[in-house]
């Protein structure tokens, strides 16, 4: 369960506090377990400063607190405050990030065993998909379904979404893909070979929250090499 730490203090030395936090980030680089942090100043009371720090779990927050750099920065932070900072730990029970959830649901649906889900709850009827492996763009939900079924007919596969960055009406997903070549793929007969690929997909959302555009980038050359399609050229 995601865990959030709320840190409140009173200070007139916000610039010094920011420099202190920048120094701590440099010292704890690669070991800090927080995934996101926001610092805000109260509009009605400029001395009231609040920091919200997000962690994947309470256990990860504890790991972060146990870093020697954290103990040092707390002492220096307290010295910049007019009174002792207060800490509130919160278990997140609701998190409104619709774009990220839709992205992860979409990639899970593509790898779902059995029949391809209808996807009409995720994709706009006029969805526009651009894949460098295709000579033409794929336009419309029915054509997008056919494209996905082609991949599913050729491979047993699953996506692992490594990162999702979302802003406004767009999101970008970095993913890895693993599968087994079970059916015809671009004229290549089934080989039974395990294959893997990495890539990124940029997605744009319509006003109703459905995906209306897709831009795919992936290691198509590496995939063809794993399938043996380049063997003759490499001899």
Strand content: 35-45%
Give the helix tally. 7
Radius of gyration of CA atoms, rounded to a whole number: 24 Å
* Count of beta strands: 10
**Unreliable stretches:** none
Helix content: 25-40%
> Major sheet, described briefly?
6 strands, mixed
Oligomerization: single chain
What general form does the structure show?
elongated
Organism: Streptomyces achromogenes
InterPro entries: Cyclase_SnoaL-like, NTF2-like_dom_sf
Protein name: Ester cyclase
Give a short overview:
With 235 residues, the protein is of the alpha+beta class.
Overall description:
Pfam families: SnoaL. It comes from Streptomyces achromogenes. InterPro entries: Cyclase_SnoaL-like, NTF2-like_dom_sf. This is Ester cyclase. By secondary structure, the chain is an alpha+beta fold. It has 7 helices and 10 strands. The strands form 2 sheets. It has a 6-stranded mixed beta sheet with strand order 6-5-10-9-8-7. Strands 2-3-1-4 form a 4-stranded antiparallel beta sheet. Helix 1 runs antiparallel to helix 3. The mean pLDDT is 92.
């Amino acid at each position: 369960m995601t865990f959030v730490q709320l840190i409140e203090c009173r200070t007139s030395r916000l610039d010094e506090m920011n420099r202190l936090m920048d120094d701590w980030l440099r010292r704890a680089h690669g070991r800090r377990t927080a995934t996101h942090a926001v610092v805000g100043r109260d509009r009605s009371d400029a001395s009231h400063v609040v920091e919200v720090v997000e962690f994947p779990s309470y256990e990860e927050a504890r790991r972060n607190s146990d870093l020697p750099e954290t103990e040092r920065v707390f002492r220096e932070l307290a010295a910049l405050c007019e009174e002792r900072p207060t800490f509130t730990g919160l278990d997140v029970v609701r998190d409104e990030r619709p774009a990220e959830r839709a992205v992860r649901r979409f990639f899970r649906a593509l790898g779902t065993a059995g029949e391809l889900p209808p996807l009409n709850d995720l994709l706009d009827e006029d969805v526009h998909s651009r894949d460098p492996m295709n000579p033409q763009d794929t336009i419309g939900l029915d054509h997008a379904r056919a494209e996905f079924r082609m991949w599913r007919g050729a491979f047993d596969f699953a996506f692992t979404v490594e990162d999702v960055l979302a802003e406004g009406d767009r999101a970008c997903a970095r993913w890895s893909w693993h599968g087994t070549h079970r059916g015809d793929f671009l004229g290549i007969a089934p080989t039974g070979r395990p294959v893997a690929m990495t890539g990124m997909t940029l997605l744009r959302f319509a006003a109703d929250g459905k995906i209306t555009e897709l831009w795919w980038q992936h290691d198509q050359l590496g995939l063809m090499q794993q399938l043996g399609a380049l063997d003759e050229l490499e001899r």
